[in-house]
Design brief:
Nuclear Transport Factor 2, Chain: A; 6-stranded antiparallel β-sheet; 18% strand
């Protein structure tokens, strides 16, 4: 059995789904949605729960019409959610490591764009439909004034997984910048791959490697 993907890490049994929350006819047309309010919440766990609810609504729709057209790939459907709750620019800078400040601005932006696509596609592609995982939220751990670690426990297919989310306070609210699954950091894993590339060929090597990965995947899935 595969380790749960990032989408599974966002999936929970509890809470009102985003779809149900936004469909309420009594909601004011001008009032911010519960999801938007959660994204700006001063409580990082509220933000994480909102992310869980939104992905849950996408991954496990309550009803699927028999005559409905085929949905867009899961990566496309969850991308707006992940972009809202992740800081992909911070995640990318952290993954590239110390060499980031030596990269020109236009190349930095190119790497962020490519890396965002890579991360979302990689994890959504590993999504396995089936029973909904359960998630238990533990008390946030303060790293410093602007950062927290949010420990959770995932129950899936009879097994339990320890998953922690690292979040940073941004002007727009708390945003995720790393995910640690069973002691393995997503940022550290990518940095171990990007740093040798940067040492050998700078930003161009990183860009070329990500572009090749994306192109190879597209060719294999035509």
């Amino acid at each position: 059995m595969k380790t749960p993907s990032l989408l599974f890490l966002f999936t929970a049994l509890a809470g009102t789904s985003f779809a149900a929350a936004t469909a309420s006819p009594s909601a004011s047309a001008t009032a911010p949605s519960p999801a938007a309010a959660a994204a700006k919440s001063a409580d990082p766990t509220t933000m994480l729960r909102a992310a869980v609810d939104e992905v849950l609504a996408i991954a496990y729709p309550e009803k699927i019409a028999a005559d409905s057209v085929a949905p867009a790939p899961l990566a496309e459907r969850v991308r707006p959610v992940l972009e809202k709750y992740f800081s992909f620019d911070l995640l990318t800078r952290s993954a590239v490591g110390p060499g980031w400040n030596q990269i020109k601005a236009n190349d930095q932006q190119r790497i962020i764009t490519l890396f965002t696509t890579l991360v979302i596609r990689t994890y959504s592609d590993k999504f396995e439909p089936g029973a909904r995982p359960g998630i238990t939220y533990a008390k946030p751990v303060e790293i410093d004034a602007a950062r927290r670690e949010l420990p959770t426990a995932i129950a899936y297919a009879g097994k339990n997984y320890s998953v922690s989310y690292r979040v940073r306070q941004q002007p727009e609210g708390w945003r995720i910048y790393d995910v640690n699954v069973e002691g393995v950091s997503m940022v550290a894993n990518y940095r171990a791959q990007f740093d040798p590339l940067f040492q050998k060929g700078g930003a161009a090597a990183i860009i070329a490697a990500i572009e090749k990965n994306i192109a190879d995947y597209a060719a294999a899935n035509k």
